[in-house]
UniProtKB/TrEMBL annotation:
Residues 12-32 have a biased composition (Basic and acidic residues). Residues 53-72 bind DNA. Pfam families: TetR_C_7 (PF14246), TetR_N (PF00440). Keywords: DNA-binding, Transcription, Transcription regulation. InterPro entries: Homeodomain-like_sf, HTH-type_TetR-like_transc_reg, HTH_TetR, Tet_transcr_reg_TetR-rel_C_sf, TetR_C_Proteobacteria. One of its GO terms (molecular function) is DNA-binding transcription factor activity. Residues 30-90 form the HTH tetR-type domain. It comes from Pseudoxanthobacter soli DSM 19599. It comes from the Bacteria. PANTHER family: HTH-TYPE TRANSCRIPTIONAL DUAL REGULATOR CECR, HTH-TYPE TRANSCRIPTIONAL REGULATOR RUTR. Residues 1-32 are annotated as: Disordered. This is Transcriptional regulator, TetR family.
């Protein structure tokens, strides 16, 4: 006679075996989805969003069209997946904006430098060119990308400025205005040069040589000034 314990153990083993059998399938599905999304990025940036077709993407991904439609119903869904990837990369750039840091200058330099590196990556530049090229005919693409990228970044910087002002390390009356000014001041030149295919990807030394004076210029307006005898100095850590 089979004991209850034996039956229970056999049942658990069967469940584990079933889960193990499903796991490779899930991994395979995730890998295939990733292959399709990467293929869509290449097709969109090469042909442009309006000219790209689901057939082009299926061929590039090495899958059949029926398989492609299992994962994505239309190319708008594929574009949304790419935008979500853009959104997912922002926490890495914004993680350094910790409200507890006392070295505001150093934090802003590191944040701006990371952002320049991200914005001048060839794959990012190609994607943004594609979005700009399609935004007139497909305005929702532009709005979606802006909301997931630049707007999220500005929101996080504004929050950082507001908190640093509350703690007395900055004097920023309008955090959102200051965030827009800071982001334009610290990275716009490099980003525009890459978008217009002017120059090369900046080196680490070039980024630092540009970003440090930009941060100092920003802090000359929004840094907290303390009396130092007859002179005034900006109270920020170097």
């Amino acid at each position: 006679m089979t004991s209850i314990t034996q039956t229970s153990t056999s049942s658990r083993h069967a469940e584990n075996d079933s889960a193990d059998a499903r796991r490779p399938r899930r991994v395979g599905q995730e890998e295939k989805r990733r292959r399709i999304v990467n293929a869509a990025r290449r097709v969109f940036t090469t042909l442009g969003y309006d000219r790209a077709s689901m057939n082009d993407i299926a061929v590039e991904a090495g899958v059949s069209k029926p398989t492609l439609y299992v994962y994505f119903e239309h190319k708008e869904a594929l574009f949304a997946a790419l935008v979500e990837e853009l959104r997912a990369t922002l926490p890495e750039c914004n993680a350094i904006l910790d409200a507890d840091v006392e070295d505001v200058r150093g934090t802003l330099i590191r944040h701006a430098s990371r952002l320049v590196v991200k914005l001048t990556r060839p794959d990012h530049v190609a994607f943004m060119r594609m979005v700009i090229g399609a935004a007139n005919a497909f305005p929702e693409l532009g709005r979606m990308t802006y909301a997931a990228g630049p707007e999220v970044g500005r929101e996080r910087v504004a929050q950082f400025f507001a908190e640093q002002s509350r703690r007395g390390r900055l004097n920023v009356p309008d955090p959102y205005l200051a965030a827009s000014q800071f982001l334009s001041l610290s990275q716009a030149t490099f980003a525009k040069q890459m978008l217009f295919n002017v120059g090369e990807v900046p080196t680490e030394a070039e980024i630092r040589a540009y970003v440090e004076p930009a941060v100092d210029m920003f802090l000359s307006i929004y840094g907290v000034r303390e009396s130092a005898g007859p002179e005034q100095k900006i109270a920020v850590a170097s």
